Amino acid sequence: MSSQLNVAVVGAGYWGPNLARNFRVADDWNLAAICDLDLARAERVANSVGGVHVTQDLAEVLDDSTVDAVAIATPARTHHPIVLAALEAGKHVIVEKPLADTRERGAEMVERARDNGLVLMADHTYCYTPAVLKIRELIEEGALGEILFVDSVRINLGLIQPDVDVFWDLAPHDLSIMDFVLPGGLDVTSVSAHGSDPLRTGKSCVGYLAMPLSSGGIAHVHVNWLSPTKIRQMVIGGTKRTLVWDDLNPQQRVSVYDRGVDLALQSKETADTRAANISYRLGDTWAPALPEQEALANVAAEFASAIRDGRPARTDGESGLRVLSVLEAASASLAVSGAPQHAETYIKEVQEA
Amino acid sequence: MSSQLNVAVVGAGYWGPNLARNFRVADDWNLAAICDLDLARAERVANSVGGVHVTQDLAEVLDDSTVDAVAIATPARTHHPIVLAALEAGKHVIVEKPLADTRERGAEMVERARDNGLVLMADHTYCYTPAVLKIRELIEEGALGEILFVDSVRINLGLIQPDVDVFWDLAPHDLSIMDFVLPGGLDVTSVSAHGSDPLRTGKSCVGYLAMPLSSGGIAHVHVNWLSPTKIRQMVIGGTKRTLVWDDLNPQQRVSVYDRGVDLALQSKETADTRAANISYRLGDTWAPALPEQEALANVAAEFASAIRDGRPARTDGESGLRVLSVLEAASASLAVSGAPQHAETYIKEVQEA
Amino acid sequence: MSSQLNVAVVGAGYWGPNLARNFRVADDWNLAAICDLDLARAERVANSVGGVHVTQDLAEVLDDSTVDAVAIATPARTHHPIVLAALEAGKHVIVEKPLADTRERGAEMVERARDNGLVLMADHTYCYTPAVLKIRELIEEGALGEILFVDSVRINLGLIQPDVDVFWDLAPHDLSIMDFVLPGGLDVTSVSAHGSDPLRTGKSCVGYLAMPLSSGGIAHVHVNWLSPTKIRQMVIGGTKRTLVWDDLNPQQRVSVYDRGVDLALQSKETADTRAANISYRLGDTWAPALPEQEALANVAAEFASAIRDGRPARTDGESGLRVLSVLEAASASLAVSGAPQHAETYIKEVQEA
Amino acid sequence: MSSQLNVAVVGAGYWGPNLARNFRVADDWNLAAICDLDLARAERVANSVGGVHVTQDLAEVLDDSTVDAVAIATPARTHHPIVLAALEAGKHVIVEKPLADTRERGAEMVERARDNGLVLMADHTYCYTPAVLKIRELIEEGALGEILFVDSVRINLGLIQPDVDVFWDLAPHDLSIMDFVLPGGLDVTSVSAHGSDPLRTGKSCVGYLAMPLSSGGIAHVHVNWLSPTKIRQMVIGGTKRTLVWDDLNPQQRVSVYDRGVDLALQSKETADTRAANISYRLGDTWAPALPEQEALANVAAEFASAIRDGRPARTDGESGLRVLSVLEAASASLAVSGAPQHAETYIKEVQEA
C-alpha cells in the first residue's frame, strides 16, 4: 500500500480516544487531527497517542484538503449536522452508533453520502470482533442452514442513562450484529417492545424486543440495566446447526452444536405430518479457534478498504439505518403497550422516493 | 399423627409412577390403589412400588368409601370429567398440571371443590423444591424488597408435542412458580405472546411471554424447544436485592446479590430528579444452603396437611386457574400477532358470577 | 444370542443392588440368585428387581452347576476367600473394586483364574461410561498423539471412611481409568504419595499421587474429602491434542483441544535447540457427542462377551492388580514422608514366580 | 501528606512500564527517572507516561540525592548487584519477583537492607489484588478457623521460558500468596517437587509441589505450561470454613463455604474416636464484594507507607526469601526424583549467623 489516508477524529469524550489510538497505529491511516470543543480534552487524547494536532474548530478540519476522512464520536443528536457538513466538504465519514437520533435524519445522511459518492460507515464495532466475523462467515457458508431464531441477551447492572432508555442504549449492539450476520440483514416484519420502568426513572430499564423475521423465524432481544449478573449471549438456531456466542467465556466464545430437530420431508405434507416426522440429532459440539484482534483495528482497516475500493463498508449507513428503523418502531410499540409496529426499511424509503 | 389417609393414583403413564412411589413411602399416606384403563401398565407400576391393588375401573375407586383422596395423572383433556366425578364422590383431589385444558373447565372444578368443601390441589411440583420454597420464604420476609422484574428462561432441545405448543408445554412451570413466589401471586395486567414456528410444525416451538405486573414491574418467560443448550434460570429483581435461581448448578442453585440501584428519594421528585439521584450498590453475594428433599414428597405432605387442616393447599385450584388464565391470554395474543391481551383472573370470575 | 448366562450376585449392601438391577434387565444374563449373610437384605434387593431366589449360603450358589458366574460386592477384605472359592467351583467372577485388600492376595486370585481358564473381571465401572469409552477410543486411534501428562482431580466433601484413607477410597477410580485409557496401561516408574490428616482422624483426608510414566511424562491424582466444592476433572495432554474430561458438565463432558506446543524437530538437536524451536498452536475445540448409556449395563455386556469369547475382560484381574500395586506403593511412600517408591507390576511377579 | 517521594524505575522491559505508569499517577510518588541500558526503550516508556527523565546510567540515578527509592524490574540474575548498589547508596528498594536468583544472594540483600535501615520490598503484586487482600483479612480475623490445606492450581498454555523451569516461572505467584495469607507465613517442614519434561525441552513443563505445613496440614501447587485450558484457582480449607478463589471468574472471585467436617471433641480421644465423632456441615456460601483496584497502585502505596513509617513492607525481603527457599528446595527435590527436601528459612539463617 503506497500511501496512507488522513483522518481526523471529531469528539474526544468516551469513544474518541479509542478511535484515535487505533487510527494512530493503523498502517492504512495517518491520524491528522483531533477536534473537540473542549481543547484541553482534545490535548489529553493527543498526548496519550504521542502528539497529534488538536483544534476546537471543525471548519478548520473540513477545510483541510489533505484530510480524507473524519471519524465522528460526538453525542448522537449532533451526528446529523456534523456528518452532513463533512459530506459536503467531500470527506468520507465513519460515525459512532447510533447513526443518528432519528431514522429520518439518518436517511438524509445516507442519501447525501450516496449522492456525493462518499463512504458513510457505521461504527458497529462489535461486528468486527473475531467472534462476530466468524459467525458471519459460518452463516454465509451455510454451516447453520436456514436461520430459525436469534435470541440475544445483554444484561448487567448498568448506568441509567440520562437521555435514552435501555433499548436505545444497549439494543443497537444486538441489532447491528443481527444485521451483520443474518443473510438478508435485519429484515423484520414487525417490532413489539415490552419495557418496564419499575424504579420510575421515566424510561424503560428492562426491555424485550420481539421481531418476526421476513425469512421466517423470530429474533428477540433482552436488554436490562438492573441485572446483578452480566450476560452477553446470543443463540442462533438454524436448520442444520445452532450456534451459541457467549462473549464472557474467553475460553470458548463461539460454540456450534450439531444438535437439533430433523424433518423427514415428504411430498404431500401438512403441519400434522411434519410434526409426526420429526426426529432428533445429538451430534458433536465444535468451538472454532478465534484470532486475537482488536475490533477497532479491523474497523479502521475496513473503512480504509471501502474508501480505496469505492465500495460500501460492510457496516454502511444503510445498516445503521436498519438499526434506527427497529429502534423507532420499538419506541412506537412501547407507546401502545407493546402492540407490534411496522419497521420502515431504507429500501422501501428509496423506492417510495 | 394417628392414622394415614388413603389415596388412589389415577393414571399410570409418565407422571403416575412418581406419584405412586411418593405416596407409597409417605408417613401421611396409604397408597390404596392404582387405576388405569391399561391394566398391565397399572400392574407394572404397582409392582415397582411393592404390590398395590390395581383396577381399570375408576368407579370402583370412587365408590370405595375408605379412599380419602385421588391423585390424577391423566391427559389434560380428561382432567375435567375425572376431577368432577371425584369431587362428587367426596374425594379430595390433586391433579397434574395443567389444571384443565381450558380456563372455563378449570373454573368449574375450582367452584365445585369449594362448594363441596374439598381440597383441590394443583400438582405444581416445582414449587415444592427446596430452591423454590427458599425463594418464596426470602421474598415473603422482604429480603428482596419490592419486586421489580422476573425473568425466566426454560430452553432446551425438547420433544415437539403432538397436541400443545411450547407455551402450554413448558410455561406452566414458570407461571406456577411465579404465582407461588410473588407476594400477590401471578397478577398481570396483560399478556403479550410472541411465538415462532420456523419448522412449520403447526405450533410455536419458540415462545416469549411479556406480562406487566399489577404491582409494577414486568414478568417475562422465554420457552424454547429448539435450543441445543439447556437453561433453567430465573432472575427476580427487587428494590433491595436480586436473586438468581440457576436450577442446573447444583453447587449454587440460588444466589442472592446485594447489588443494585439505589434511589435517593426526595420529597418533591419527578422522573428526572429520580434518574439524577440514582446510585449503585455493589455488595456481597450470598447463596443459602438448601436441604436435599424430593419435591413430590413435599407435595404429598402438603396435600395431607391441607386436608387435615381444612385449608386450601399452597398451590390450590385457584393458582392452577391463574396459570390457565395466562396461557389462554397467551394463545389469544398469539392469534393477533402478539398484541397484548387481558388475562381473566379467578377473582373477577367469582365476582361476576 | 441363543441362551443366557446365569449369574448370582453375592453381597446385597451398597453396590449389590446396582449389579442385580443391571444383570436382571441384561439380554445376556439371567439373574439366578442373590446371596447375603443378611437374608432380609437379600430379599429387599430381590423384591426391588421383581422376585429372584435368595440365599444366605454361598456354598449353595457355588454348588449349583447351572450358575455360570458370580458377581461379588462384599467388603474388600472378603474378596480373596470368596473369589478363590468361586474359581475353584468353576465360576467366572466379576469383583467390585478394589480387587483385593492386598496386592499379594490379588495376584493369587489372578493366577488362579488363569490356571482354571476362567474370566476374572474387575468391576471398574467408570471405565464403561460413555465418556471414558470415548477417551480410550480417541487415544487408541492417535487423536491425542503421544501422552505427555495425565492430571486427575477428584475432590468433594466426602464421608471419612472408617477403614481406609482417601487414597484407597477415591484413587482407585482415577487409577483404573488411567489404566484403561493409557496405551500401555498404568505403567509407572515410581509412586510418590503426599497425604495430610489435618483433622487428626488417623488417616489421610487430603492426598496427592505423583507417578512418572514409563513412556515419559507424568500422571498425577489429587483426592480430597475436605473440599466444599465437587470437582471431577481429568486432563490428558498429548503431543497432538489435549483432552479435558469434566464429569460434572453434562452439556460438554469431553472436550478435545487442538491447542498445544509444537516442536520443530531438527536432525541434530539438544535440549537447548528444542526449546528454541517451540511454537504454539491455537486450534479449534471439539466436544464429541456421547450416547446415553448406563455404565453397569456395559459392564454386564463386557463380562458376558469375555466369557463367551474366552478372552480377558477389558478390565481384567491384571488391571485390578496394577491399581493395587500403585495403592500399595502409595501407602509405602506415605510411610516415608512421600519419598518415591517402586510399584510392583504383575508382569514382574509372574517372571519371578 | 505534605511531600512526595522520588522514585526511579530501573529496567524498561516487560514489567517496568507498569511500575512507571503506577508511580506516575500515585499521590505518594514523583516518578523521577527511568533507567535502562537500552535508551530507546526507556524513552518509549517515558513518553507513554507523559515525559520523564531517562538515562542509561544507573550510577547517575544512585548518585542523585533527591531520589528516595528505586524500583527494579531487570532480569533476576541482575537483582543482586543492583539492589546492593542501591542499598549502599541509601535508597529504599522494591524489586520484581523473584527477589534474587539464589536464596543466598537474596539473604545478603535482606541483611544489607536491615543493616542500613532501609526498606527492601518484594513486588509480590498478586498479594495486593483486592481478592488476596480480602483473603488475608478473612484468615486473620479467624473466618476460616485453623488452616487445614491450601491447594493452588495455575495452569495454561504458557511460553516455555528459555532460562527457568515451570516452577521458577509460575510458582512464585502461588508461594508469595501463601506466604501473604497464611497466619505464620509460608512455613513448611519440607518440599517435594515432581516435574515432567515430556517434550524434552531440558526443563520441567509440568510441576507439582507438596509442602507439609509446620502448623499441620499441607500446601500444594500445580503449575503447568501445557494445559489448553487456563485455571487460576486456590482452595484454602479451614476448620470453620473453606475458601475458594477463582481468579478467572470476575463475577464471583472469592467464595466462602460454610461447609465442612465437624469434630465432636472429647476429653479422652484417639484417632479412632475422632473418626467416629465426625459430622458434616452444609451451610451457606458467601461471596464478599471486592473493590475495583489495580494491584500495583496498592503496591506503590504500601512501599511509600513502609518508608514513611519506618516499618517492613507487608511483602518484605524476608517474604521474598521464603519463596526462594521453597524454590531452591524444589530444585533440590527434583534432582533426587521428588524425595522431600528441607527448606531453609531465613530465621534459621540469621540464628546460625
Distance between the termini of chain A: 40 Å
Radius of gyration of chain A from the CA trace? Answer: 22 Å
Tally of individual helices of chain A: 11
Oligomer: homotetramer
Q: Any low-confidence stretches of chain A, pLDDT <50, length ≥5?
A: 346-353
Question: How helical, in percent, are the residues of chain A?
Answer: 25-40%
The outline of chain A comes out as: globular
Main sheet: strands, sense, barrel of chain A: 8 strands, mixed
Q: Give the largest interface pair and sizes.
A: A-B, 56 and 57 residues
In the CATH hierarchy, what is the superfamily of the largest domain in chain A? Dihydrodipicolinate Reductase, domain 2
Could you say which structural class the secondary elements and strand pairing of chain A correspond to?
A: alpha/beta
Strand order, biggest sheet of chain A? 8-9-10-7-11-12-13-14
| Strand fraction of chain A | 25-35%
Task: Give the SSE order of chain A as H and E letters.
Answer: EHEHEHEHEHEHEHEEEEEEHEHHH
CATH topology grouping of the largest domain in chain A = Dihydrodipicolinate Reductase, domain 2
Provide a descriptive summary of the structure in words.
Four copies of one chain form a homotetramer. Chain A is α/β, with parallel strands linked by helices and 353 residues long. Chain A folds into two domains: 139 residues, NAD(P)-binding Rossmann-like Domain (Rossmann fold, 3-Layer(aba) Sandwich); 177 residues, Dihydrodipicolinate Reductase, domain 2, CATH 3.30.360.10. Helices cover 35% and strands 27% of the residues of chain A. Chain A has an eight-stranded mixed sheet. In chain A, strands 3-2-1-4-5-6 form a six-stranded parallel sheet, with helices on both faces. The radius of gyration of chain A is 22 Å and the shape is globular. The relative contact order of chain A is 0.15.
